[in-house]
Amino acid sequence: AKLFVGFGISNAEQAKAYLDAGADKVIVGSEIINIYSKFIGQDGSIDMEKAIRAVEEFAGKICAVCRAKF
Asked: What is the pTM of this model?
């Protein structure tokens, strides 16, 4: 059985720690929502370009850790 961990992961260092401890994969959800929400203006408008770039940057760091592990 595979072990997936998905609680409290908000950066690449935490993802690496879980992988190093024996997790097969990490799941990141809340941090992506947190990043996305930083780009919602007072009027409810969303700067989609900046939000997407920030999520891509975050995901890239997480993916790099996963690729290094496997």
From this structure: 0.83
